[in-house]
Write a structure and sequence with these properties.
Blueprint: H1 3-15, H2 18-24, H3 29-43, E1 48-49, E2 56-57, H4 59-82, E3 91-98, H5 99-104, H6 106-116, E4 120-127, H7 132-138, E5 143-147, E6 156-164, E7 166-171, E8 191-195, H8 199-210, E9 216-221, H9 224-232, E10 237-241, H10 242-246, E11 254-257, E12 266-273, H11 280-291
Helix pairs in contact: 1-4, 2-3, 6-11
Length: 292
């Protein structure tokens, strides 16, 4: 049990309704219920009578509530004494990003955010980069770190943090791939490993059309990390963001192919529903990210 659990418990008891408390805590009612159940298992006794509306405390729950209030008061007093610059902002935020972004873009932001807002519970979800924008549009995530799409929905706000060139990559040894030699590849015979969908695929297709090239598409895959791995194995040529290549364990087994014109780079940044920018937690994370 930690200080965030104590704050969660006090929020729930003050509101008296699981759904409304979950909304204020920026989590689902099922998540709140599971965390409460975990606290009760740790205590070995029921803290809240769930069969009443509004929710009511058991006798043990009332004593625990007093303990939680006293503990949090003492903790806040000590924290302010030791570091008067620490914010008292608390609550929960859900952020979604790709696996690559989670260890290349996020760590520095997260370190600053944790130092400034230690009471905020930041939930990090990772998955395919193509899921990012749909996640924030649906409300499954409060914020996402993503590549800016060609067309940004009217209800979203995006702020770029960095750019990442989109690169053609080939195996270290040219002889491993048919049609690949020291000059420009023979596109009609060189096998290509491309993203099945998404921004990268759109830009690659546009590039081939602009050069009147009919590519030899060998495989269409989901996930840039998989493209780097397949290229490293000698399957063919791929196209990935430089950020992915830089952080790939297979980077030493591939090389970058110089092509003209270069593909338009990705803009990597934060995206949020515009109507949520007034949320103090989102404001805090947004400002922390841009401060870097």
């Amino acid at each position: 049990m930690n200080y965030r659990d104590l704050q969660m418990f006090l929020t729930l008891t003050s509101i008296g309704n699981m759904g409304r408390a979950a909304e204020q805590l920026h989590m689902s009612p099922s998540t709140l219920s599971r965390r409460l159940a975990a606290m009760e298992r740790e205590m070995g006794i029921s803290l809240i009578a769930r069969d009443s509306q509004p929710l009511s405390l058991t006798e043990a729950g009332r004593r625990f509530s007093q303990y939680a209030e006293q503990t949090l008061y003492a903790w806040d007093a000590l924290r302010q004494e030791l570091n008067p610059h620490v914010s008292e902002l608390s609550g929960s935020l859900t952020l979604f990003c790709s696996v690559t972004a989670s260890f290349s873009v996020l760590p520095e932001i997260l370190a600053r955010f944790r130092e400034r807002y230690p009471a905020v519970d930041l939930r990090i979800l990772t998955g395919d980069a193509e899921e990012s924008i749909p996640r924030v549009e649906s409300g499954d995530a409060d914020l996402v770190i993503a590549a800016r799409p060609e067309q940004l929905s009217a209800g979203l706000t995006f702020k770029a943090l960095l750019d990442s060139p989109l690169l053609f990559i080939a195996p270290r040894h040219a002889s491993a791939v048919p049609g690949l030699h020291s000059g420009e590849p023979d596109w009609s015979s060189t096998p290509m490993i491309l993203s099945a969908t998404g921004l990268a695929r759109t830009r690659i297709d546009q590039w081939f059309v602009s050069k009147n090239i009919q590519p030899n598409v060998y495989a269409q895959v989901s996930g840039n990390e998989a493209i780097v791995s397949m290229v490293a194995l000698g399957v063919g040529i791929g196209v990935v963001p430089e950020l992915v290549l830089r952080n790939s364990p297979a980077a030493g087994r591939v090389r970058i192919l110089p092509v003209e014109p270069e593909l338009e780079p990705f803009l990597i940044g934060l995206c949020v529903q515009t109507r949520c920018l007034d949320n103090p937690l989102i404001q805090a994370f947004w400002k922390t990210a841009l401060d870097g």
